[in-house]
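Hey Z.,

So I finally got round to the (R)-mevalonate thing we talked about over coffee. Here's the setup:
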Amino acid sequence: MPLSLHPHAAAHGKAIVLGEHSVVYGFPAMAAALPDALRLEATALPDPHAPSTLYMPDWDLQIELRVESEHPVARACLEVLGHCDGPLQGWAIAGRSRLPPGAGLGSSAALTVAIARLVLGPTASIDDVVAGSMAGERVFHGEPSGIDSEVAARGGMLRFVRGEAPTPVTFDGPLPLIVVPSRVGRSTADQVAKVRSRYDRFPRLTQPLLQVLGRSVDDGIEALKARDFDALGEIMQVAHEVLSAFAVSSPILDALCSTALRHGALGAKLTGAGGGGCIVVLPGPNPGSIIDAFTADGYEPLQVELLP
Ligand code: MEV
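And the result:
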């Protein structure tokens, strides 16, 4: 077992552009990294047998990583450290993150990827880092597809199919997006369970819906490559409406999407698990009026320019 952690590690956040939920059932998804969204620093405590600590002021989080702890973040971090054969005590880990926690932007994957990197170091293989992250992600989310960990570790825009190596999506120039946190919390595991329950009750009805969500990914990638943003926006609309059929949207998310569309967006949909969390908006030629509308309503939209 290594006696030390590396002093620094970083990871990306993520915004799923298309294919959330259907990705759990083996269909493709497309997700973009939000670069350098989380950084951690590790320092040795004077007592190597003292419980390790995690301090994330942006998340109001200050905890001890004790084996007997019930705190999901403590349990997840210890799972990652254990999986990667890292030290389970004697370290102070502190970090900064610009991701709101639990909002569907991959905060838990960013944290677990960065913890894995503290153990495995900057030259570790992506697959080893992702495997370490997944040990922690299972504590948070049950049986996640792995898309969040892959994007948090790799960066860029990825086409991801569960159980396969992801492929980078190449396209010309930046893809401008606006991410709007609804400030409504939710549990990814609960939203995934909601989709599962509808799927189990009505498999013949819901299987074609999952196929549409999967198809939206490859049609969306084609539109992105052709820089046909009108088409990409319309495909995002279809995806949001199909996701609503699984009851993972909400009146607030629908209202946020309507605000974006009223102010000229080409498309707007929930991103991630839904039920709360964020929407992702494809702005038209005038993103400023969309930003102003959300800001006037008291929201804090995040403007991102995604690169391949
Ligand atoms: C969560 O970021 C994305 C979901 O598709 C769940 C998963 O992929 O594990 C809702």
